[in-house]
Amino acid sequence: MNTTERGRALSEELNPGMEDALNERYGHLVPGMAEGVVDFAYGRQYARDGLDLKSRYIATIAALTALGGHTKPQLKVNIAGGRKAGLTQQEIGEVIWQMALYGGFPAAINGLNAALEVFDAE
């Protein structure tokens, strides 16, 4: 299985319909973008050996939180993916709150609000 196929299988498991949604929204502007995201993010990064999927989501949620409120859409997608990978609501909350030290209190509070939105939709 090549990285695109591996990425497609993993992205469909964690974020069903993501590739189609990216294609629909951006495909006319950036042909191949959706497949590139699937190949690189899921097939070459999330599917790598060396870290389990939960740990990768912890790192992703932490980074997106520390980057600040402008990452809210991506943060919500990755919180949902983290839940599917086995993270508990409490673990996600703790990861986000830890980022108050690095991204500041506003970034952490924005992250917690994004998490609550995802948890409410579950």
UniProtKB/TrEMBL annotation:
Stated name of the protein: Carboxymuconolactone decarboxylase-like domain-containing protein
InterPro entries, per database record: 4CMD/NDH-1_regulator (IPR052512), AhpD-like (IPR029032), CMD-like (IPR003779)
Organism of derivation: Paramylibacter ulvae
Carboxymuconolactone decarboxylase-like domain mapped to chain residues: 31-116
Coiled-coil region: none
